[in-house]
Design goal:
The complex is a heterotrimer. By secondary structure, chain A is α/β, with parallel strands linked by helices. Chain A has 17 helices and eleven strands. In chain A, strand 2, helix 5 and strand 3 form a beta-alpha-beta unit. The chains are: A alpha/beta, B alpha+beta, C mainly alpha. Chains A and C meet through helix 11, helix 12, helix 13 and helix 14 of A and helix 1, helix 2, helix 3 and strand 2 of C.
């Protein structure tokens, strides 16, 4: 297999080829490292590339296979890791200056499971600072560019991971999702991204944003690849006492079957209409019709409190984040500014945080501090937590009538870099469809279902009840099969610029 | 610069003291509250730390089952209700000894609440202290201040941090305002903490040593004119490191606040530091503005809902109640109420019990612990159980007295020797040659010498004044440096002088 | 529900961020807009609704009281901004422990 084939082959097929010895993991890894070298100057999906480490991991997998060991389902396949997850000895910045140069002395559980499974970690991907954002423009290290149109954002906060997939720099990626940070970039880049049921994947080692909302999750170019990755990283972790002590839902089996006959699909009335781009709405309707053609039963459901979800989210998140980010105080690690021997600890803390945090982070910390402060806590934080209860109740009622709920993933396709930077509220509106599932803790994913007239990807959002993550893959796989057929090939074949035809120089 | 104080009597005449006590008990679990690092004391700095207790980015807490169990048992022993459902909470504030810049604690849902502790005072009166709550939390790291005055925070140039202690489990016990103790408030405070100490020891959940920090006490004091309902402004005194200091600090604060009020001033709401060497409190930090800790439920830990079955299982593991234990021991030892009270007031109950177990009679044990050893402890300024003599050694000393090898007076020299590190009591007796001489030959010679030196006394004895023998016995004892069996000496004298 | 610059400054102090005057001026109106938008949560947060702090209902997850290896002290201090021997070094502290 030549290099250009290697970078466009699915993770599942790469794993198969590596397992049979048709190609080595080192070759595969090399091809992807070369691809990164060739295109990442323009894309800027990666904050750091661990060439030495990746090749060593790849060589180790090859050696184990040569020794007769049976490799796991993704052994030897390269992956891009969002820079919010700790990887021992490797720079981990969370997209912030305050952690520039920090190398964790430990691995996140997700990282460890990847390494144990023989997945090769190529490097750490770009993200909005501390995962606060919907465009990756809040990264302290410069934005990532959408491979479909370099003048546009790839989405956020996990824009780097999604862009790495769409630019064929890696066949697999890990993101984290607090309000849509996996799903919205997936929609903007024509890739697959899943936020598992809360507690489905361990948060130990994931730099926390909002602890009651965060979930690490799998990202890929295909539904099966994403499902395979899901099974590698999911499962109970005693180090995360909020992780589910339950079997991982059968996501791979669901991805392989992809059968939606008899599945009740609920269209959420409140997630659509005014404020949604017409092409997005049209694509959504067409996709729902497709599901009906494939045998699903479509119903309309109403979730009236979803209207308040955004407001509740932008109170709960800053509150928890203001507490989670307090530890960045320049005492034990991270940026320290102003320690010239004359200043106090209090002053050094304040100067370091001022210098190390970007504007959006400061905004949210201040809001969170306010929302929790004496006299305001009940009205703000307390009320938001009540809205959360109401959102959960709406979901429960809706799931009594439907097996999955659907909506567009985002109101619009990818917007231009700089377009929404000065208007925080406009930026927050990106997350309208994705936020309710973070509040309620159930599973959701985004699947690519078409392009706008401008050639920009559109995502279809599927939501499942707690612990029914497999239903997401069932729907995603059915759509993928039908649409790929209709399109005559995967959507990502149409990414402009170097993809299947690139000559990758060694 | 000392602040003015009123005499205690004057203070109490004008004002009623109201106190509140916050006691922290450091649990003796093997691992920390939220991680598996060892809690063992005395390790080299930062060698018992991990991503969790260092609060590294991405770390998450995992709550210690034994700590929860201990908290429930402590709550039950304090007659509290155990919450059916409660959560941990984050107490948010910035301080370098706190790795996360929040403490994982409990806020409005403590695991135990609404209890009481009956405290016995020196004259046998029992005072009930109402307990508002007991909750779980974690300790902070250890700060050392350098560059300024000796180890004090103010004026230090910089500080060093050791996080070994960060994350060690603590249980905080908070009383309701203690009213009605009147002039005995300082004693109530001390006895309350001592009783908690007894209870925790009996439960086996903590070492509860004030001088090691496994038992800590902050004392809140306020005054109000007699008969007034509204509470006065309270101060919180910290840095109290012994039971005696509790009593001293409360007493001083009463006197100091009384002087302020008497002078027409208002008591400033603040924390104060107890200065042991001066017997005073000094101003610490103003608390006029309440701290805003922005409490919210800890999202990284799920709620704790102890089943009623589990609570009852734990209730069955509670040790004997201190009062019942005291009554049982008093009966077993056949002590009078006064004798028992002496033992309790000297804080010698456990020590007497252990000495009896080591073989001494209860009366002998009581004798030594409440007199000789109590005196030594007072002189050295240490607690009785830190005096340097073990119960086993006391029993050994008494055994030597019972065998006639030494007498009570010589025993004191034996204690000196043990404390000087010369070895066990028997060794000290041998090395110092303290054994009582019972060899009749030697004794006879000494008696003859005494008779010869005191002919008038000898005459009186011959004449039938037996009591005069005392002077001769004294002379013999002096000659023999106390190492004579006094009773035998008397016998010999009377034999000689018929 | 206007947030004055003074209030923002107080919040920044509470959060230990030394905001510049320019930032304060810029931030206050932005925060206002956001707070107005999120205040609508009070419309539906009535007394009969219980708050949710944990999205998935679980209770009683505990860890056995067992000692595990700690980090080697070099790794603990490797990323320290300043150290003296095996302890973290920090500038002089003004405030007192709580």
């Amino acid at each position: 297999m030549d290099a250009s084939t290697l970078i466009t082959t699915s993770a599942a097929d790469l794993a198969g080829a590596i397992a049979t010895g048709e190609v080595s993991s080192v070759e595969v890894t090399r091809a992807h490292l070369d691809r990164i070298a060739a295109v990442d100057g323009a894309v800027h999906a990666f904050l750091s590339v661990d060439e030495e480490g990746a090749l060593a991991q790849a060589a180790a997998v090859d050696a184990r296979i040569a020794a007769g060991e049976r490799p796991g389902p993704l052994a030897g396949v390269p992956l891009a890791l969002k820079d919010v997850l700790a990887q021992k000895g490797v720079p981990t910045t969370a997209g912030s200056k305050i952690l520039e140069g920090w190398r964790p002395p430990y691995n996140a559980t997700v990282t460890q499971r990847l390494l144990d499974a023989g997945v090769v970690i190529l490097g750490k991907t770009n993200m909005d600072e501390f995962a606060m954002g919907s465009s990756t423009e809040n990264s302290a290290y410069g934005p990532t560019h959408n491979p479909w149109d370099f003048t546009r954002v790839p989405g956020g906060s996990g824009g780097g991971s999604a862009a790495a997939l769409a630019a064929f720099e890696a066949p697999l990626a890990i993101g984290t999702d607090t309000g849509g940070s996996i799903r919205q970039p997936a929609a903007f880049t024509g890739t697959v991204g899943v936020k598992p049921t809360y507690g489905g994947i361990s948060r130990f080692g994931q730099i926390a944003l909002a602890s009651s909302l965060d979930q690490p999750g799998p990202c890929g170019r295909t539904v099966l690849d994403t499902a395979l990755l899901h099974e590698v990283i999911a499962g109970h972790d005693p180090k995360d006492q909020t992780s589910l002590d339950a079997p991982v839902p059968p996501v791979v089996a669901a991805a392989r079957a992809g059968d939606v006959r008899g599945l009740r699909v609920g269209v959420v009335t409140e997630l659509g209409g005014e404020g949604y781009a017409p092409e997005v709405e049209a694509n959504f309707r067409a996709t729902v019709d497709l599901l009906a053609e494939l045998g699903a039963e479509v119903v309309e459901v109403s979730c009236p409190t979803f209207e308040y979800a955004l407001a509740a989210y932008y109170l709960i998140l800053p509150s928890e984040a203001s507490s989670n980010l307090a530890r960045f105080d320049a005492m034990r690690y991270g940026l320290r500014v102003g320690d010239d021997g004359t200043r106090s600890t209090e002053q050094v803390m304040a100067l370091s945080r001022e210098a190390g945090f970007g504007a959006e982070v400061k905004r949210r910390i201040i809001i969170g501090t306010y929302a929790l402060s004496a006299g305001y806590r009940d009205a703000y934080y307390g009320s938001a937590q009540k809205v959360r209860t109401l959102v959960q109740q709406d979901f429960t009622a809706a799931f009594a009538r439907a097996d999955v709920l659907v909506s567009p993933t985002t109101p619009t396709a990818a917007f231009r870099l700089g377009e929404r930077l000065d208007d925080p509220m406009a930026m927050y509106l990106n997350d309208l469809c994705t936020i309710p599932t973070n509040l309620a803790g159930n599973a959701a994913g985004s699947f690519p279902t078409g392009l706008t007239g401008d050639g920009l990807p559109i995502g279809f959002h599927v939501m499942a009840p707690h612990r029914a993550d497999d239903r997401l893959y069932r729907v995603g796989a059915a759509l993928e099969r039908a649409l790929t057929d209709r399109w005559g090939g995967p959507l990502l074949n149409r990414v402009p610029g170097p993809a299947t035809t690139t000559e990758v120089t060694r | 610069m000392s602040e003015p104080i009123l005499s205690y009597a004057d203070a109490l005449e004008a004002y009623e003291p109201v106190i509140g006590l916050e006691v922290h008990v450091e649990l003796n679990t093997a691992s920390k509250m939220f991680c598996g690092c060892s809690t063992e004391f005395g390790a080299a700095p930062n060698t018992h730390t991990c991503p969790v207790c260092l609060g590294l980015p991405g770390s998450m807490p995992a709550i210690n089952a034994k700590a929860v169990e201990s908290a429930i048992r402590m709550g039950l022993a304090l007659n509290c209700s155990i919450a059916e459902w409660c959560r941990m909470a984050r107490k948010n504030y910035f301080y370098p000894d706190m790795p996360k810049d929040y403490q994982t604690s409990q806020y409005d849902e403590p695991i135990a609440h609404d209890g009481h502790l009956d405290v016995e005072l020196s004259d046998g009166e029992v005072f009930r202290v109402e307990i508002e709550r007991a909750h779980m939390e974690e300790d902070a790291g250890k700060l050392t201040h350098l560059g300024g005055e000796t180890g004090r925070l103010h004026g230090a140039d910089y500080s060093l941090l050791d996080y070994n202690r960060a994350g060690v489990p603590l249980i905080e016990i908070v009383t309701r305002p203690i009213t009605g103790a009147g002039a005995r408030a300082p004693e109530v405070a001390r006895r309350y903490v001592e009783t908690i100490r007894d209870l925790m020891r009996a439960l086996g959940v903590s070492d509860v040593r004030m001088n090691e920090g496994s038992l800590r006490c902050d004392a809140n004091v306020s005054l109000r004119p007699w008969g007034r309902e509204k509470l006065g402004t309270r101060t919180e005194t910290k840095n109290i490191n012994s039971f005696r200091s509790i009593e001293g600090a409360v007493t001083y604060e009463i006197q100091r606040q009384a002087a302020v009020l008497q002078d027409g001033g208002t008591v400033e709401q603040c924390t104060r530091n107890w200065l042991e060497h001066l017997g005073e409190t000094s101003f610490g930090r103003s608390k006029e503005e309440a701290e805003d800790y922005r409490y919210f439920p800890e999202p990284d830990l799920v709620p704790i809902a102890p089943s009623r079955e589990w609570v009852e299982e734990l209730r069955a593991t509670l040790p004997e109640h201190p009062t019942r234990r005291r009554n049982r021991l008093q009966a077993a030892w056949d002590f009078s109420d006064l004798e028992m009270r002496d033992v309790v007031n000297a804080d010698a109950l456990d020590l007497v019990e252990q000495t009896v177990t080591a073989g001494a009679t209860a009366q002998a044990a009581r004798k030594w612990w409440t007199t000789e050893l109590a005196r030594r402890a007072n002189e050295a300024g240490v607690a009785l159980d830190e005096v340097g003599i073990s119960p086993a050694q006391v029993a050994a000393v008494q055994a030597l007295v019972d065998a006639g090898t030494i007498n009570d007076k010589l025993a004191r020299q034996v204690y000196d020797g043990v404390l000087a590190g010369e070895g066990e009591p028997a060794e000290v007796v041998a090395d110092r040659g303290l054994a009582v001489v019972s060899d009749d030959g030697a004794l006879g010679a000494a008696v003859d010498a005494a008779i010869a030196a005191n002919p008038d006394v000898a005459e009186r004895i011959r004449g039938g004044r037996v009591q005069a023998a005392g002077a001769l016995i004294g002379a013999v004892m002096k000659e023999m440096r106390g190492q004579a069996d006094a009773a035998r000496v008397r016998e010999i004298i009377l034999e000689r002088l018929g | 529900m206007a947030l004055s610059q003074d209030e923002v400054a107080r919040l920044a102090q509470l959060a230990r961020i030394d905001l510049s005057p320019a930032e304060l001026a810029h931030l206050a109106p932005q925060l206002d807009v956001i707070l107005e938008a999120v205040a609508r949560v009070t419309d539906v947060a009535t007394d009969d609704v219980a708050p949710t702090s944990h999205p998935v209902p679980m209770t009683n997850v505990f860890r056995a009281d067992e000692v595990h290896d700690s980090l080697p002290v070099d790794e603990v201090l490797a990323m320290a901004p300043d150290r003296e021997d095996d302890r973290f070094r920090v500038p002089r502290i003004l405030g007192e422990e709580q």
